[in-house]
Amino acid sequence: MFIDYSRIQVMAGNGGSGCISFRREKYVPKGGPDGGNGGKGGDVVAVGNENTNTLIEYRYKKIFKAKKGQHGSGSNKTGKSAAGIHLHMPLGTIIYDISGDRKVKICELTEHGEEVIVAKGGDGGRGNAMFATSTNQAPRNAEDGYPGEDKELELELKLMADVGLVGLPNAGKSTLLSTISSARPKVADYPFTTLEPSLGVVTTADFRSFVVADIPGIIEDAHQGKGLGVRFLRHIERTRVLLFLIDINTLSPLDDYLILKKELSEFHHLFDNRRHLIAITKIDTVPAKDHEELFTELREAFAEKFAEKVVFISSVANENIQELKFALERIIEENEQ
Fold first, then answer.
1. Cα 45 to Cα 83: distance, rounded to the nearest angstrom
2. d(CA 55, CA 63)
3. Highest mean pLDDT: which of 121-130, 186-195, 221-230?
4. Are the CB atoms for 66 and 117 separated by under 8 Å?
5. Measuring CA to CA, which residue among 150, 143, 111 is closest to residue 129?
6. Which domains does the chain have, with CATH numbers?
7. What are residue 11's DSSP bridge partners?
8. Residues 195-202: contacts with CB within 8 Å, 24+ apart?
């Protein structure tokens, strides 16, 4: 199950208390204070992990608590600090602190093994040995340990991919993903088959590859929450290249493209300048004798109205799929330069 949002509570460990103790040895009747300090409480640490791609671990378990530090003891022994707890999260996870009145961004995990302390453990209290002075050589006071941080966190996952598939429902996104990669998203001939994002790794030549993200179909006014709404639009924010898929059987491929561009622009203006490619899908459903005339008509229409080039593909018949993969790879490489 793909989970891309959760709220959890994290509680770092409290520090251990300092100790009140006096040195007691034979022939030393008035030993000085030797109470040790308390140990530090455990931190709560978020860790980026490339081997997981969902927040499902944080859907059912909501409270994560680190252990407290040990108390100090006599003979100036400092209590043992508690080990922190590590919360492994997929790359692309954004963590917000929502404990107070405002929502504050703590971090964004983008690298494998990246560690961020999201709740700090409390420091240990000082033992009475730390309070000894020239005028108070036998202090009988020590500090309690300091409390660890207690926070409510909001976790939001945005998939990280090279190419994001964008299209209206039933445009053939999932079929294409299953054709060009080893991903096996649900495929069916009705709208909103895809209810959660899928990732696929596409291999080209010389062991080169890129990652493609398939998200649920976009409909008009999706940026306002209509349909599956903005919950999934955010998953293409990090994609470097957009692949617009338009069903050749739609009433107006140009109008479909306008809808998709408008929804992306309304969601975030950065999409206006994102590198992209347009693919007309399901050409196997059109009689071969009509291909040349229809393809020419569509090429000229897109060139005239949008100054855009289009490619024609069929995932089912595997037509022009290799050409599409290499075209996407070229755009990705150009972006990296």
1. 11
2. 14
3. 121-130
4. no
5. 143
6. 5-157 (2.70.210.12), 163-336 (3.40.50.300)
7. 65, 150
8. 195/228, 196/1, 196/2, 197/2, 197/4, 197/159, 197/232, 197/235, 198/2, 198/174, 199/53, 199/159, 199/161, 202/163, 202/325, 202/328
Which runs of consecutive H residues, i.e. helices, occur in the chain? 57-60, 173-180, 230-233, 253-267, 291-306, 321-336
Q: How many CB atoms lie within 10 A of CB 79?
A: 25
- How do strand 275-281 and strand 209-214 relate by DSSP bridges? unpaired
Q: Where are the beta strands (DSSP E) in the chain?
A: 5-11, 44-49, 63-65, 85-90, 93-97, 104-109, 115-119, 150-157, 163-167, 198-203, 209-214, 241-247, 275-281, 310-312
Q: 238-264: buried (b, 16+ CB within 10 Å) or exposed (e) per residue?
A: bbbbbbbbbbbebeebbebbebbbebb
- The CA–CA distances, whole Å, from 177 to 83, 181, 205, 280 equal 43, 6, 18, 15
Q: How far apart are CA 231 and CA 216, in angstroms?
A: 10
Q: Average of pLDDT values for 223-232?
A: 47
- Lowest mean pLDDT segment, chosen from 64-68, 116-120, 323-327: 323-327
The pLDDT assigned to 185 comes to 45
Q: Cβ distance 167 to 19 under 8 Å?
A: no
289-334 pLDDT, tens digit per residue, is 999 999 999 999 999 999 999 999 999 999 999 999 999 999 988 8
Full-model pTM? 0.69
